[in-house]
Request: fold
Amino acid sequence: MTSIPSATPTGWLLRVSATSAPADPENFEQQRQLLRAVAGFDPNTRIWTAYIGQLDIRALDVLQQLYDAARRFSTEVHLEPVAAPSTWEGPTFTADGDVAALLAARADQGRALGQLHIH
Reply:
């Protein structure tokens, strides 16, 4: 889980990542064609990553493409709240917004967004 700075962040991002499924070159190229417009790829970790700072049509497209890849190629998609770095120039979920409050709460509890409590 991402460590949260001690100071209250001014904004939050949702980091969406998918581990590339092992595939032959043809299937990997299909994954690449599907994801390259919405996520960056790190060849060392084989992880596709995108950041979402507002729920808009772009965010929905990013999520849809990553979940399409999961369905078609058996990748795993992960959502993780992260504090927006000072170098981030895009939109963020602001500290006083409902989504930011949810992201902060999930990050503070030390579990991934969407992970349920275990009693």
In short: The radius of gyration is 15 Å. The chain has a mean pLDDT of 78. Strands lie at 11-19, 40-42, 47-52, 76-83, 93-94. The first strand starts at residue 11 and ends at 19.
